[in-house]
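#structure-requests
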Amino acid sequence: MAEAIQLLVATVFLRPYVFVFLAFYLTAATVAIGWRRTALFTGIAWITFTRYWRWGAAHGFVGRRVML
């Protein structure tokens, strides 16, 4: 348990911009669309991104040029 807390503190310390952005996003979205829609959208986005990353779809594009 102590290792998990240490990892969390290190993550916040090394990447504070991520947590500042998250706080700004949550505040702005809650004001604009309400807390229920914010929670729903955030949950859907998190699930989508997590599955996309875990399935390896993101790794297929690393280092490749995308032609439009």
